Amino acid sequence: MVISSALDKPKSFEHNDYVLSPPDEVVAYTCSSNKNVWTKTIRLEQCGRGDLASLLTFIACIQKISPIRMYNSENVGVIKNNVNCGLYLPGSIHLTGSDLTFSYQFSKSGSVHDLLKPYFVDGGLPESIVQAIFSRAVRSLYQLHKNRWIHRSICARHMLLYQLPDEDDSLGIAFCGLGSIVPVSPFGSSLNRTDVPIIDATWRGWHYQNLQDNIYSTHPAAWYSPEMVAQDFEGYGKPSDIYSLGLALAEMFTGIAPFVGTITPSLIFLKKMTLKGAIQLPCSPGQTASAELISVFESCTKFDASQRPTAEELLENEWVKQGLATPLKESHLTRFRLQ
User: Fold this and answer.
1) What is the pTM of this model?
2) Residue 148 zone, left/alpha/beta (φ > 0; ψ -120 to 50; rest)
3) 112-330 adopts what CATH topology?
């Protein structure tokens, strides 16, 4: 059973199973028997001081976005979709002893990452599907940025396909993998951010080192913008998410993550800081991208953050408008799951 990449943990392509840190265990995952709810339980006693601090920061952030109640028991009632500001948020949080549990409505369609097959030459998605998914992701990102939040970890794995309420088979896109979300500016400051997300906090349930033997994997920093990697006085903001979304666009189209095979983070950082020219959209043999897709990709991934479009400007792009007008249904995606 694939619960979905919303669990914020990597997947082993070779064995089609999840790669977790050793199970002495900080994090445990369960799914209800009727497959309506899945939970992530964090054993707080196993977390260090730094992990607890980052976990409390995460909870504070999501409670600012949506007033999620924290219960002191598991009796929390029915869990419903909680999509707010373009994010797929937990329906409830409850504390039982020293175990903290996040409960989510189960998303049967999983994440966009579940549709990709990087071990095949044609492991990406058709442009029409990419267009429909990307356009909905832009709309969710606009909602997030409008409320002055940034994601900082956008990739295909963190783009969740969820069932729209009261619509038969139609899907929306919301961002998961929320351990990196922060306000655009640090609270009490008008400056850009200069920090980088905490990647290996034990409460996130995985370590990037688990993937070092996987030829199709790459470090989370592969999706970071150059200005985010630089950590200079200018800092970074909303354009950093646009850059990551541009790389996710290429990831969906090709099926391959950026900088795949470049496991060492320092080497990825070096490449991002020195390769200031336009990034070329990689295409498999026999694969051709439209001029419109290439234009959107190149505009989103410009080295200079000030030259990238905003999410609002992307919504006015004709290619994106066409994508929003294109139906996105589970029935359109079934064939990619069966490959």
Assistant:
1) 0.86
2) left
3) Transferase(Phosphotransferase); domain 1 (1.10.510)
